[in-house]
Amino acid sequence: MVQYVPPPDYRSLLPPLLACLPTAFVSPRAPPALLPLLSPILRQRVQLLAATSSSASDSWLPLLCWESEPAKRLVDVVSESDAFELHPVSGELDFGDVEDLSYRRLDEETLQARVIVTDLGLIIIYLWCEGDQEGGGNGWRVSEARPVKGDTEGVASNWCPTIADADEKAKENMMEEAIREGEDHSAMHGMNNDDTAIEDEPEEEDDDDDYWAQYDKTPATQIPPVPPSNPNKHVRTSSEADYFDRYTQVQPEMDNDDPSEDRRAIGESTLNGDVMATSMCRASKPDTRSFQDTYALPNGSGAAIADEDISHPTASPPAGLAAVSRLEESAECQSIAEMAVKQHVSTSIKSLFRLCRSSGMERSDFDRLVQIELETLSMMEEDD
Hints:
- By secondary structure, the chain is α+β, with helices and mostly antiparallel strands.
- The chain has helices spanning 10-20, 40-51, 68-80, 153-156, 163-217, 238-245, 263-266, 275-284, 289-295, 301-307, 319-358, 363-383; strands at residues 102-107, 110-117, 122-129, 139-147.
- Helix 8 runs antiparallel to helix 11 (319-358).
């Protein structure tokens, strides 16, 4: 849906703007009545740049023009003209005759209108703004003020007498620009193809000659016979040897002896990782030494009897000796369990110390923490 845009009513738009222009020589800041008359981008420009002015004599009037040279002439026009004074009877500003309005569309969202005030020597360019809350909603806002003297912007631009003509002119300009870009692209592409074709022709001929000349220069070669391979024989190469040698430098996870571990910070322990295995092996072997000593004959007669081929029943150990053996095994099992518990406690303390050290805790803090826990355990024993 095309929105209707009414033409600007310059009879109501120009007087508030022209009345604010002379105040630029009184105050470095724009009057509040001027800001709603400006377009959003020009309003922001005047607010920011006028607020950052370093001198009290600086005027905000040049900020209404986007070019430096016309901005200087704009200040001269306003300062030298007496036409900005209010009429003594009506109290209004008489700006005289105004030329016919002209319009220009830059894109789908930018529509401008130009008002030329001949008696004042000013060109006011309005911009149609939608949703401008600070300016009072939809309407025409001032986007630039320029002097008529020395102005070349109107000659070079596409200004039309009506809004419909401005829309049609904008479409024609867009089509012409698209066609021009396509022709430039085609011309550039065709030029590159021609240059490439001209350069590739002698290169292709040279490549063909070089290719067939290779057969004349290539000597006859004989392929050496491949020695028969023995599938049962495997020769380890140096890369394979290096690969398997790396396993000798791997530290097993369950190994109790870690060379990279700093034992000075942990302290020495009386427990070894192989205590459990050694004790189990010792318990599984029968103790026949006491039995042999008990039943051995004096003067080594037992050895002589063993050497003889005499068939006789084997003597069994007495019941008291078996009971003593069971007691010894039970005591040894208890010792093994105790050693396992001690080893577990020692390993746990070492793991806790490594954890605290990795988190940045000092050794003294770790000792104090363990001591506090031990004292807590003593309090629990007293409660029990």
